[in-house]
Write a structure and sequence with these properties.
alpha+beta, Aminopeptidase, 2 domains, 5-stranded antiparallel beta sheet, 7 helices, binds zinc ion
């Protein structure tokens, strides 16, 4: 039996193995404070029953780990989980299984999506670790929309929603608009399996300052200055689970943006009314509520203050949901479709 992280997004430390008990913990890396992301692969354990134990209850979601055999298709183990332990029996031929906190979204999936839809993937800058950081754009107009995900590397629900948004926008975008998509703002973190959240000295979504330390943020700020940028939407996952984190919600930007956010929120509620991951503004976090300080140098606040920008907001999509709103890859895409329909209605009305 072998436990490893030799794949995109891998993150685990094996502290000890006693009989069939495997004591594991996420790698925090350069994150300040606690966070919960982990992903590992178990090979050559066919026929075995293993119990994986974490030292913290905020590690495994309420439906158990996300499981995959190919890093593409993911499902929940479908057990009721206390949060710090799960047991798995490997089938007689089940020699390679991926387990993770959440359903990973491999950047290759995004590249394949672009290819399928005839979109060119371009490099907009070099990441901290020297990688070509990908983006794509589409549309024919000079009114711009910026779509972003993975400002926080581990937040894969945002990637599925983003893909769904693109799928609906591509054939329906009004000709006066164009869209820039930056699918993995913290590209190194996504590939390397970092938490990404609360990086020291600050993470990608606290970098919208006079002197950004990340080239990708610098690129997007410059893009905003040089284009007629009208809308920005940033897709995230919230905290692990519990309370509002089990629901779809908006993290709103500035007080000045509130009338516009309210208007968009009505459309989003209507468009998601019939789907599993539906939205209700009662879970929203308004400007200066909880952690949502409107002076925080994050993407939505920065762009809200730019004159040309008419709406800038962050969507938070739960990792797990509740029994009646249990997330899946398909439901996250479906939320993206509904989100894009709300965008199109909003744009049409303005
Ligand atoms: Zn986030």
């Amino acid at each position: 039996m072998r436990i490893h992280t030799q794949f995109t997004g891998g993150n685990i430390t094996v502290e000890k193995i006693e009989d069939n008990n495997v004591y594991v913990e996420r790698e925090i890396r350069d994150t300040e404070g606690d966070w919960f992301y982990w992903a590992f692969c178990v090979e050559d354990a066919a026929g075995m029953t293993l119990t994986f134990r974490f030292p913290n209850k905020a590690r495994v979601g309420r439906f158990g780990p996300a499981i995959s055999h190919d890093l593409e298709n993911w499902h929940w183990q479908e057990v009721s989980c206390a949060g710090d332990v799960f047991t798995y029996t490997f089938g007689p031929d089940e020699n390679k299984v991926y387990f993770a906190h959440n359903m990973l979204y491999h950047p290759v999936r995004f590249m394949d999506f672009c290819e399928k839809h005839g979109l060119t993937v371009e490099t907009i800058c070099t990441s901290v670790k020297g990688r070509d950081l990908p983006a794509t754009r589409f549309g024919t107009g000079d009114k711009w929309i910026l779509l972003t995900a993975r400002h926080h590397a581990c937040e894969s629900t945002g990637s599925y929603v983003l893909e769904g948004v693109m799928e609906t926008l591509l054939p329906a975008l009004p000709e006066e608009y164009s869209v820039l998509v930056v699918p993995c703002v913290d590209y190194d973190g996504v590939l390397d399996g970092d938490q990404g959240k609360n990086r020291k000295p600050h993470d990608h979504n606290r970098d919208y300052t006079e002197e950004p330390i990340y080239a990708v943020v610098d690129y997007m700020m410059q893009f905003g200055r040089e284009h007629n940028l009208m809308y920005t939407f940033d897709f995230h996952s919230p905290w692990h689970q519990g309370g509002q984190n089990d629901h779809v919600f908006l993290s709103r930007s500035t007080e000045a943006m509130e009338p516009f956010t309210n208007h968009f929120a009505e459309f989003l509620k209507e468009e998601t009314a019939g789907i599993v991951l539906h939205y209700d503004r009662i879970y929203d976090v308004g400007p200066n509520e909880q952690w949502n300080d409107e002076t925080s140098p994050n993407s939505k606040n920065y762009f809200s203050k730019q004159d040309s920008v008419k709406l800038s907001v962050t969507l938070e999509t739960p990792y797990f949901g509740l029994d009646a709103t249990k997330t899946s890859q398909a439901y996250q895409l479906e939320l993206g479709h509904a989100f894009a329909r709300a965008m199109l209605r909003y744009m049409e009305e303005k």
